[in-house]
Structures are given as structure tokens and as C-alpha cells.
Amino acid sequence: MEQKRFFLKEADLPKQWYNIQADMVNKPMPLLNPATKQPIKAEDLYPLFAQELSRQELNQTDRWIDIPEKVQEMYRYYRSTPLVRAYGLEKAIGTPANIYFKNESVSPVGSHKLNSALAQAYYCKQEGVTNVTTETGAGQWGAALSYAASLFGLEAAVYQVKISYEQKPYRRSIMQVFGAQVIPSPSMTTRAGKDILTRDPNHQGSLGTAISEAVELARMTPNCKYTLGSVLSHVSLHQTVIGLEAEKQMEMAGEYPDMVIACFGGGSNFGGISFPFMRHKILEGKKTRFIAAEPASCPKLTKGKFEYDFGDETGYTPLLPMFTLGHNFKPANIHAGGLRYHGAGVIVSQLLKDGLMEAVDINQLESFKAGCLFAKAEGIIPAPESCHAIAATIREAIKCKEAGEKKTILFNLSGHGLVDMGAYDQYLAGNLVDYTL
Amino acid sequence: MEQKRFFLKEADLPKQWYNIQADMVNKPMPLLNPATKQPIKAEDLYPLFAQELSRQELNQTDRWIDIPEKVQEMYRYYRSTPLVRAYGLEKAIGTPANIYFKNESVSPVGSHKLNSALAQAYYCKQEGVTNVTTETGAGQWGAALSYAASLFGLEAAVYQVKISYEQKPYRRSIMQVFGAQVIPSPSMTTRAGKDILTRDPNHQGSLGTAISEAVELARMTPNCKYTLGSVLSHVSLHQTVIGLEAEKQMEMAGEYPDMVIACFGGGSNFGGISFPFMRHKILEGKKTRFIAAEPASCPKLTKGKFEYDFGDETGYTPLLPMFTLGHNFKPANIHAGGLRYHGAGVIVSQLLKDGLMEAVDINQLESFKAGCLFAKAEGIIPAPESCHAIAATIREAIKCKEAGEKKTILFNLSGHGLVDMGAYDQYLAGNLVDYTL
Q1: Does a structural domain hold residue B162?
Q2: Helix axes B51-58, B114-126, angle to 10 degrees
Q3: Closest to B184 measured CA to CA, from B176, B172, B175, B196
Q4: How far is A135 from chain B (nearest CA, A)?
Q5: Number of folded domains in chain B?
Q6: Is residue A36 part of a domain?
Q7: Any idea of the CA torsion for A229, A234, A237, A238, to the nearest 10 degrees?
Q8: Which positions in chain B touch A176 (Cβ < 8 Å)?
Q9: Closest CA to A399 of A311, A291, A307, A309
């Protein structure tokens, strides 16, 4: 009997997150204070983030970071997520490749984002914070943070990118059911928002804009911290539970991936599934390929420049050494709202520079075509973001078919697309277009 | 360490469905041919249903029915579903009761409906059928049947109740992604639909109406069978995988339920989780209470009459001995579309008559209040139908609190409500009302 799904026993769940910075030969370059151009220290981040998160952000020495007991307890509500052998997709492609996916869409809020939201809310609560702010694109992160905040009794204010707020009204409702306040961004509630709207009254918003607003609100509100759903190193750190579980689950399946694939917005789900496997590449010379799938309309990894840039549109954040399209880049209105970000995390940027991973860009139509094939084969409607990972997987599986090679591919299904059916509707009606940069 | 979730090993998954009819002291009364008033035989159903399903429908002797290998294989993609200890909900209520729920919302299509859709599509395919028709309310069944049909290479036509078609456009899109044809009912594509629209051009549709249309289309189409998502005995039979798994999972948790609770439309998810536990009540005298939670606006169990009635509005089906509000009953436009049905399955009707189970009616506002409490506590947005089961659970948990009794409650979370966020929106905005009959 072929096994379809692999779960870990609760006792086997990860008790520590994996910090790849400790194992990197070339560490990420320092974050810089934009005024002094001096390297940022953890203390410099305390006004913005919980202190423990600030320390995790800059930690380049400890390979393993303990997951607090309380966070482990909450992980047990939905983790391990299943590792699934995608027999249906293999058959639909007719590939000799063995395809597995880690199904993060079964988390309560529907995506991997909860893994970091719980950790961030926990540390904020521990340090006496009462309010949190954040940005969200498609709303996966916003929903996760809203739920985590509600669990820890924190007030949450979420700036949702305007185009997504309008495209995906149900995601806003989900955040509201969890008790969060949701504001479309750019808004008139912040200086940053007002300035952007003055320059461009029809600005559709981007993650960079929403970050500026959330950061500003956090600064102006007593006892309030800002939280971020991707890009930063501590976010990828929390997401390594995905890869650590997948490592054990692949072992249960008796396989080791030749390729690990994930979609790419700021890097958190990509880092989450990749880094634990990448340590075997760094330390033991394993040959695994790591493929980040980004949208062709927002291709920072394949067409951006590696340079110091701001993480937000207004320039409130430290300068980050990263692949970027420029912090004023205005991404096209693709439905994969979570991938509409101009930059890449500093760890991933360094790894790409060092040739430890690669990137591909995927057009919107190819991504939805892949998503529909997957849906019909596996029964799960994937998030438009995750469709990029599926499209990259299908490309590789077709190469295997052409070459007659039986490779093992692992991809991350970062979330479901049930709240994105409007996008599928438009795709099926032939109303979607590509926006290649 | 307290365990939150219980899964079965693939090897421990049920290999047979449980047919409660074999153990019932008073068997359900026969289905009658409306013209001759003679009991229906399996052969009489062959024109409408796959032959094996027709035989299952009337089987009152075999306690266990083998699950075909192929269906078992497909179950393994998503089963077992987790049994979850609802620590969050218990805390939110402040109850000494131990609350568990069986989480069917993690099935690929988001509800328990797939358990029967796979079986029905399998038997149709086996018997050379090429097309299937069905009705759907909220769309949970329609989505399940569409996916199952796509897996077996069958063409699917789904009549969706018009009010749900309009309230829940995303569910229609999901069916279309799976390749089904979706028609709002009442429609002009059938005689039954035309007659209803002639009488009442603004008819909002009901499951009874949609069944008439789907039955008629099946009759008029070569090589086409009709499939049904609830009410019928073979549907509950397939759904017993829920309760059979839950039985073993409760054993893993070291508990046995004092109460088993499920929402009630036609009876398939209620029967699915209840019947395996009920056999211990019938055979061994266990004291478990079984509670069906129906909407106050469509209360066939609490306010209907036990009599012979048609299963559809037009009168195409056999006469069923059941609790019913009358086949011309027009349910109010509540958002729990899956519960907008005038009758109850014949097995459940007999069990209720014999006092083996009980029923409660829940108002729309109470159901959404319960759903929001559950969402904040457990992170899962429940389907409006499932909110009725949660509301009934909360009522019982509050009774436990008042009496200081530590009872064990098991309820079925039949599906998620991610495609029903419009309803939650309206609830949060104070725009929903109660419709008590």
C-alpha cells in the first residue's frame, strides 16, 4: 500500500528553530542606519520590534533557537502539517518524478504565516506589549497575525494593500472575525499614507507602502510594536519548522529531495522549507537544488540589483543589503498579492549571490494554469502565490519527463486560495493578463 | 504534555462502512412508489442511481459494507481527518466539559461531503456511466461531487439553489475550477424549473427544487445518473467513516462521548458521526445522547410531521417515510444553505421516533455568534451549517458549567466557512435576522 500522507507524532515536532545564519560561510552584510550608515545593533530595533525578535534578527552565531514552550503548545494545534505525495499531479503531468508537497494550507488560518505570527505575538505579550500593527497583501499574514493577537489578548491593526483589500474582501472579513482593525493602504491615517496619496491619489498600494504605515502607527502608539510577515530573518527563522518537519517526513517516505521549490515574496515560506535542507548542502555538500519562484511582474531575484535599499516605500526601515527593484517600485496588480514586494530578505539575497540557490520567474497566466491543474488533480485550490511554486514544479517535472529522469521534488503549498476565487473566476473567463517586467 | 490532535495510521483506516439499518430494532418503513403505493425495490431505483447505490439504499441486513479498494485509496489522501481537543473553546466558555471535534473541514474540498462523492462517482464509473447530475445548496456537496467526477473522468452538471448561487459566488467558481457545469435553480433548463418559475418568477430555490431539476436532467440524458449529497441512506452509510474513525480516535484520547452533536440538513453528517456510536447504544445500552442541530427556520425534526412525503419539490422521487415540513415548504434565506431542506432521512426519522436521538433548533444569530466564538478560540472559520453544531455544543457546555459536570462532548465540524465570509460580514455588520418558524 502506497502511503499518501506523512505526519509526525507530537513528540517528534521541532523544539528549536534552525538559524541558517550560523552556518553561512558568507554571512549577510549588516543592516545599516540610514542616517549614520552605521551597522544596526539589536537595541536599535527595540523601539520597533519585541526585543527578543530584534536579537533573533541579528543572531549570526546560534544555530538552534529554542521555541518557547507556549509557542510549541500552539504549534501542536495544527502541526505537523501533512507531507503529501502528489500522485494525482504526477499522473496529470505524466512525469516519472516523485512529487511531494508540504501542505501548510491546513493551518487554521489557511497558510504557513501562522508559524511566525504565534511566535511574534508571544514575544510581544511576554514583553508587556498591548498593541501590534502590521501590513498585509493578500491577507494571509494579516489573518494569521489577527488570530495570534486574539489568542494572546493583543489589539491588532492591519494595513492591507488597497488592491488586495478590494480584490479579496473575504480576507478582510476573516481578520475582522478574529477581532482586528483593518485599514486599506495607502490611507489617510498616517503621514506616510497621506504623502503617498498626495503624490498619487490613485495609488493601489504595495507591501512597501503598507509597511511604512504600520511602522509609523507603531511608533506613534504607546506600548505598540510592529510585526512583519516576511522579509526579515527572524520571520524565516520561525518558518523553519516547515523544513524541519519536512526533513523527518521525507525520511518516513524514504526519500531525499533533489529539488526544493517555493514561491517567493519576501522569502519566509521559501526560507522556511529550504533552510533546513540547505544546511546539508552547506555542511555536507548535498547536491539539492533550491528554486525560488517569483512573479514575472515583480522579479527582484532574477532582474533586481543587489544593493542597500529600504524595506518600505517611505524609508522608515534600516537599509537592507538585498536584491531589490527599488523601494519605490510599483508592482503590477497581479492576484498573488503576497508576492508584490520589491525586495528579498538579506539571508536569501546572500545565498543567491553565493550560488546556493536559484530563482525563476513565472507569469500570472502560467501560475493560474498550474493552479487549476493542481486543483483538479489534488482537490485543493491553491493560493495564487502558491501557484507559482506549483508552476515551477511542473516545469521541472516536465523536464524529468523529457529526460526520463526520476527525480524527487518537494514544494511548499504555502496556502489555499479559497478566498481568492474571484481571481480564478477571472482566469477562467479569460480576463487575466500577464505583466512581464 | 496534553495531546491536541489525534490521527489514525493509514493501516487503521476503516475498510468497511457501517450500516445501522442492520442493527435497528424498528427498521425504516419502505420507500413507496407514488403511483402504485407499493414498496420500492432496488431495481426500481436503477434508472436514477448507480445499481450498487440502489442496493445499498435498501439494504437492511448487512451490518458492514466493504469500501471498494479504489475508494479506500482516495480516502487515504485526506483521511483520517483529525480529532481535535477544543481546549480553546473550552477556555472561552469556561466549561468543565471536555470538548472534541472531528475536523472534516480539512478535506480537499473543505467538508465531509467528499466521503460520499468519491463513493458515488466510483460506482457510477464502474457501471459505465459518463455523466452525473446533482443539486447543491451552499455548494459543499456540489464542490465535492465536481471534484470526484473530475477524478473519475465523469461530466458533472450541478443545479445550485439560486439564493446560494448568488450569496456564495466563490463556491460556484470552485465547482467550475473542478470542471463542472453549474446552473442556478430554479432554471429554464428543465420542465420542473419552468413550472416553478411560472408559478413564482422570484422563487429563490431550495434543495427540493434543485433535486427535481437534477433528477429530470438525469432522466433525459443518456448514460447519466443522479447523485445526492444527503438524505438518502446510502449517503449516511458512506459518511460513517467519520464516526468509525472518531471512535478509534476517542479511544486514543482515552474518552467516550456522553454527547455526539452535528448539524442537520438531510442527515448525512449527523448520521456519519453518530451511527457508529449509536450501535453501542442499540447493542450495549450505552447512554450517549445524540443531538441533531437544525435551523429554527427549517425545523423538520422539532416541528415537522412524520409522514410519507416526496424528497423533491416537484414529486419525482419515491415517497419517503420521514419527518417533513412538506415538500412545498419554502425555507427562509438563511446562510446555512445546506440546512435548507424540508425533510429528514428515513433512518434518522425512525431513530428520532424511537427516542434514540434528539433534536434542537438554533436561530441564525445564535449560530453565527457561536461560529465567531469558535473562530477566535480555535482559529478555524466554521461553515454556517457547522455553526449550528457549535451552538448546540456551547449550550450543552454551559449546562455542564452551571451543573459543575465534566461531560465529554464530541461534535462534527462538517466544513469550513471560508467561502461564506459574506455571511459573516453581514453578521458582524448587524444585518442578519432570525427567521423562526
Answers
A1: no
A2: 130
A3: B172
A4: 20
A5: 1
A6: no
A7: -50
A8: 424-425, 428
A9: A291
**pLDDT tens-digit map of B357-386:** 999 999 999 999 999 999 999 999 999 999
pLDDT at A1: 53
The CA distance from B337 to the nearest CA of chain A, in Å, is 18
Mutate to test the interface with A, among B4, B171, B420 (most CBs of A within 10 A): B4
- The pairing of strands A64-66 and A16-18 is antiparallel
Q: What is the mean pLDDT of residues B34-58?
A: 96
Does residue B353 form part of some domain? yes
List, for residues A140-166, the tens digit of each pLDDT value.
999 999 999 999 999 999 999 999 898
pLDDT tens string A366-404: 999 999 999 999 999 999 999 999 999 999 999 999 999
Say which residue the cell 522549507 belongs to.
A273
Q: Residue A161: how many CB atoms within 10 A of its CB?
A: 32
Per-residue confidence band for B1, with pLDDT thresholds at 50, 70 and 90: low
Task: Tell me which chain A residues have a C-beta less than 8 angstroms from the C-beta of B424.
Answer: 173-174, 176-177
Grade residue B9 by pLDDT with cuts at 50, 70 and 90.
very high
Residue B167 has pLDDT above 90, yes or no: no
Chain A residue with Cα closest to B70 = A1
Residues A342-381 as b or e (16 or more Cβ within 10 Å = b): bbbbbbbbbbbbeebbebbbbbbebbbbbbbbbbbbbbbb
- Chain Cα centroid distance, residue A225: 20
Phi, psi of A94 (to 5 degrees): 70, 40
Which chain B residues contact residue A177 at CB under 8 A? 372, 375-376, 381, 421, 424, 428
Cα-based torsion angle of the residue sequence A103, A106, A107, A112 in order, rounded to the nearest 10 degrees:
30
Q: How far apart are CA B277 and CA B287, in angstroms?
A: 10
% of chain B at pLDDT higher than 70: 100
**d(CA B60, nearest CA chain A) in Å:** 32
Which of A15, A67, A367, A418 to mutate against chain B (most B CBs within 10 Å)? A418
Which residue type occupies A412? Answer: N
| A contacts of B118 (beta carbons < 8 Å) | none
Which of A181, A182, A381, A425 to probe by mutation at the B interface, max B CB count within 10 Å? A381
As a whole number, mean pLDDT of residues A85-102 equals 97
Calpha distance A113→A107 (Å, rounded): 9
What is the pLDDT, as a whole number, of residue A434?
92
Binning pLDDT at 50, 70 and 90, where does residue B181 land? very high
Tens-digit pLDDT profile for residues A197-234? 999 999 999 888 999 999 999 999 999 999 999 999 99
ipTM score assigned to the predicted complex: 0.89
Peptide bond into B331 cis (omega under 30): no
Stated as kind and residue range, the H or E segment containing B261 is strand B259-263
**Residue B364's CATH number:** 3.40.50.1100
Find the CB nearest B375 among A106, A107, A178: A178
Mean pLDDT estimate for chain A:
96
Partner residue facing A379 (CB), from B147, B379, B428: B147
What is the extent of the structural domain holding A286? 5-12+72-111+234-428
A412 in any annotated domain: yes
Q: Taking CA atoms, what residue in B is nearest to A72? A: B1
